[in-house]
Write a structure and sequence with these properties.
Elements lengths: L23 H7 L5 E4 L2 E3 L3 E3 L4 E10 L7 E5 L5 E8 L6 E5 L7 E3 L2 E3 L13 E6 L12 E3 L2 E3 L3 E16 L2 E3 L4 E3 L2 E3 L1 E14 L2
Parallel strand pairs: 1-4, 2-4, 3-5, 4-6, 5-7, 6-8, 6-9, 7-10, 8-11, 9-12, 10-13, 11-13, 12-14, 13-17
Antiparallel strand pairs: 15-16
Length: 207
Protein backbone atom coordinates (compact mmCIF):
# COMPACT_ATOMS: atom_id res chain seq x y z
CA UNK A 1 0.00 0.00 0.00
CA UNK A 2 1.33 3.40 -0.98
CA UNK A 3 0.88 5.72 2.01
CA UNK A 4 1.96 8.78 0.05
CA UNK A 5 5.14 10.02 -1.68
CA UNK A 6 6.00 6.42 -2.51
CA UNK A 7 6.07 5.34 1.13
CA UNK A 8 4.94 1.74 1.52
CA UNK A 9 5.54 1.06 5.22
CA UNK A 10 4.79 4.36 6.93
CA UNK A 11 3.33 7.71 5.94
CA UNK A 12 5.73 10.45 4.89
CA UNK A 13 6.89 12.87 7.57
CA UNK A 14 6.21 16.62 7.57
CA UNK A 15 9.05 17.09 5.06
CA UNK A 16 7.38 14.61 2.70
CA UNK A 17 10.12 12.02 3.23
CA UNK A 18 9.80 8.30 3.93
CA UNK A 19 11.42 6.97 7.10
CA UNK A 20 12.92 10.34 8.03
CA UNK A 21 11.05 10.80 11.31
CA UNK A 22 10.94 14.59 10.94
CA UNK A 23 14.73 14.80 11.07
CA UNK A 24 15.86 18.26 10.00
CA UNK A 25 19.27 16.87 9.03
CA UNK A 26 17.59 14.21 6.92
CA UNK A 27 15.56 16.85 5.08
CA UNK A 28 18.69 18.91 4.42
CA UNK A 29 20.56 15.86 3.15
CA UNK A 30 17.67 14.98 0.83
CA UNK A 31 17.55 18.46 -0.74
CA UNK A 32 19.23 19.28 -4.02
CA UNK A 33 21.63 22.22 -4.39
CA UNK A 34 19.60 25.39 -4.81
CA UNK A 35 16.53 23.98 -3.04
CA UNK A 36 14.71 25.66 -0.16
CA UNK A 37 14.06 23.39 2.82
CA UNK A 38 10.83 24.77 4.31
CA UNK A 39 10.84 23.81 7.99
CA UNK A 40 7.49 23.50 9.78
CA UNK A 41 6.79 24.49 13.39
CA UNK A 42 8.52 22.35 15.97
CA UNK A 43 11.55 21.68 18.12
CA UNK A 44 14.36 19.76 16.43
CA UNK A 45 16.53 18.16 19.14
CA UNK A 46 19.61 17.74 16.98
CA UNK A 47 22.63 19.55 15.64
CA UNK A 48 22.76 20.04 11.89
CA UNK A 49 25.37 20.38 9.15
CA UNK A 50 24.68 22.34 5.97
CA UNK A 51 27.13 21.28 3.26
CA UNK A 52 25.41 22.37 0.04
CA UNK A 53 23.80 25.48 -1.43
CA UNK A 54 20.40 25.08 0.21
CA UNK A 55 18.24 27.60 2.02
CA UNK A 56 16.99 26.25 5.34
CA UNK A 57 14.03 28.46 6.23
CA UNK A 58 11.64 28.26 9.18
CA UNK A 59 8.01 28.70 8.13
CA UNK A 60 6.72 29.37 11.66
CA UNK A 61 8.23 28.84 15.12
CA UNK A 62 11.19 26.47 14.81
CA UNK A 63 13.79 25.62 17.43
CA UNK A 64 17.08 23.83 16.84
CA UNK A 65 17.92 22.52 20.30
CA UNK A 66 21.37 20.92 20.44
CA UNK A 67 21.87 21.35 24.17
CA UNK A 68 23.66 18.26 25.46
CA UNK A 69 23.83 16.91 21.90
CA UNK A 70 26.69 18.87 20.36
CA UNK A 71 28.95 21.81 21.14
CA UNK A 72 27.27 23.81 18.39
CA UNK A 73 23.80 23.78 16.86
CA UNK A 74 24.55 24.52 13.19
CA UNK A 75 27.77 24.02 11.22
CA UNK A 76 27.87 25.42 7.69
CA UNK A 77 30.45 24.31 5.13
CA UNK A 78 28.89 25.41 1.86
CA UNK A 79 28.65 27.95 -0.93
CA UNK A 80 25.46 30.01 -1.10
CA UNK A 81 23.66 28.46 1.88
CA UNK A 82 21.08 30.28 4.03
CA UNK A 83 19.82 29.74 7.58
CA UNK A 84 16.77 31.87 8.34
CA UNK A 85 14.26 32.30 11.13
CA UNK A 86 15.23 29.81 13.85
CA UNK A 87 15.44 29.92 17.63
CA UNK A 88 18.73 28.37 18.77
CA UNK A 89 19.13 27.96 22.55
CA UNK A 90 22.37 27.04 24.27
CA UNK A 91 23.81 26.24 27.68
CA UNK A 92 27.08 25.23 29.36
CA UNK A 93 27.45 22.29 26.94
CA UNK A 94 27.61 24.56 23.89
CA UNK A 95 30.32 26.93 22.67
CA UNK A 96 28.51 28.27 19.56
CA UNK A 97 25.12 28.63 17.98
CA UNK A 98 26.14 28.81 14.31
CA UNK A 99 29.63 28.05 12.93
CA UNK A 100 30.87 29.01 9.45
CA UNK A 101 33.90 26.96 8.41
CA UNK A 102 36.73 28.01 6.04
CA UNK A 103 35.00 26.64 2.92
CA UNK A 104 31.99 28.98 3.22
CA UNK A 105 31.25 31.49 0.47
CA UNK A 106 28.18 33.68 0.17
CA UNK A 107 26.48 32.28 3.27
CA UNK A 108 23.58 34.16 4.90
CA UNK A 109 22.55 33.76 8.55
CA UNK A 110 19.45 35.88 9.12
CA UNK A 111 16.52 36.50 11.46
CA UNK A 112 17.53 33.93 14.06
CA UNK A 113 17.34 34.19 17.86
CA UNK A 114 20.49 32.74 19.43
CA UNK A 115 21.20 32.66 23.15
CA UNK A 116 22.72 30.90 26.14
CA UNK A 117 26.06 29.47 24.90
CA UNK A 118 28.58 29.51 27.77
CA UNK A 119 31.12 26.72 27.07
CA UNK A 120 34.61 28.16 26.35
CA UNK A 121 35.82 27.26 22.86
CA UNK A 122 37.17 23.69 23.15
CA UNK A 123 39.24 24.12 19.97
CA UNK A 124 41.71 26.56 21.53
CA UNK A 125 42.47 28.28 24.81
CA UNK A 126 39.96 31.09 24.27
CA UNK A 127 37.47 31.69 27.11
CA UNK A 128 34.88 32.90 24.60
CA UNK A 129 31.61 31.35 23.53
CA UNK A 130 29.82 32.62 20.42
CA UNK A 131 26.40 33.23 18.98
CA UNK A 132 27.87 33.12 15.48
CA UNK A 133 31.46 32.08 14.78
CA UNK A 134 33.13 32.37 11.37
CA UNK A 135 36.76 31.36 10.97
CA UNK A 136 39.36 30.61 8.33
CA UNK A 137 42.59 28.67 8.37
CA UNK A 138 44.73 30.86 6.09
CA UNK A 139 44.61 33.78 3.66
CA UNK A 140 43.44 31.37 0.94
CA UNK A 141 40.99 29.29 3.01
CA UNK A 142 38.44 31.48 4.75
CA UNK A 143 34.75 32.39 4.75
CA UNK A 144 34.05 35.00 2.06
CA UNK A 145 30.97 37.10 1.38
CA UNK A 146 29.11 36.18 4.57
CA UNK A 147 26.02 38.15 5.64
CA UNK A 148 24.70 38.19 9.22
CA UNK A 149 21.48 40.21 9.40
CA UNK A 150 18.41 40.59 11.57
CA UNK A 151 19.59 38.19 14.27
CA UNK A 152 19.01 38.62 17.99
CA UNK A 153 21.91 37.29 20.06
CA UNK A 154 22.06 37.53 23.85
CA UNK A 155 23.13 35.72 27.02
CA UNK A 156 26.27 34.35 25.34
CA UNK A 157 29.57 34.28 27.24
CA UNK A 158 32.12 36.51 25.53
CA UNK A 159 31.10 37.29 21.93
CA UNK A 160 27.83 37.63 20.07
CA UNK A 161 29.54 37.45 16.66
CA UNK A 162 33.16 36.41 16.22
CA UNK A 163 35.20 36.54 13.04
CA UNK A 164 38.06 34.31 14.11
CA UNK A 165 41.29 34.08 12.20
CA UNK A 166 40.85 35.05 8.53
CA UNK A 167 37.53 36.17 7.07
CA UNK A 168 36.86 38.34 4.03
CA UNK A 169 34.02 40.60 2.86
CA UNK A 170 31.63 40.12 5.78
CA UNK A 171 28.45 42.19 6.16
CA UNK A 172 26.93 42.47 9.64
CA UNK A 173 23.76 44.53 9.70
CA UNK A 174 20.51 45.02 11.60
CA UNK A 175 21.29 42.61 14.44
CA UNK A 176 20.21 43.04 18.07
CA UNK A 177 23.24 42.09 20.17
CA UNK A 178 22.71 42.53 23.89
CA UNK A 179 23.40 41.20 27.40
CA UNK A 180 26.63 39.45 26.42
CA UNK A 181 28.17 37.83 29.51
CA UNK A 182 31.69 39.05 30.39
CA UNK A 183 34.51 36.50 30.59
CA UNK A 184 38.00 36.77 32.01
CA UNK A 185 40.47 37.49 29.19
CA UNK A 186 44.10 38.23 30.09
CA UNK A 187 43.02 39.45 33.49
CA UNK A 188 40.31 41.76 32.15
CA UNK A 189 36.55 41.32 31.85
CA UNK A 190 35.60 41.09 28.19
CA UNK A 191 32.26 41.02 26.39
CA UNK A 192 31.82 42.10 22.80
CA UNK A 193 29.15 42.39 20.17
CA UNK A 194 31.47 41.79 17.21
CA UNK A 195 35.13 40.80 17.41
CA UNK A 196 37.49 40.01 14.55
CA UNK A 197 41.02 39.01 13.67
CA UNK A 198 42.53 39.37 10.17
CA UNK A 199 39.16 40.42 8.75
CA UNK A 200 39.25 41.96 5.28
CA UNK A 201 36.43 44.20 3.98
CA UNK A 202 34.26 44.13 7.11
CA UNK A 203 31.00 46.10 6.85
CA UNK A 204 29.17 46.66 10.14
CA UNK A 205 26.04 48.81 10.33
CA UNK A 206 22.85 49.32 12.34
CA UNK A 207 23.56 46.71 15.03
Amino acid sequence: EDLGCGCNEEAPDTFGLCGNGNSLQGAIDAANPGDTVSVPDGTYAESINISSSVAVVCEGNCTIDARGVSGSAVVIAAVGATLNGFTIPGDETMYAGVVLTPSCQGVTVSNNTIYGMTLPNPGNDSPLSYGILAYGSSETEMPMGSTFSGNEIYGVAGAAISLGSYTYSTTITGNDLHDIIPVDFLGEQLSTGVQSEFAGELNISEN
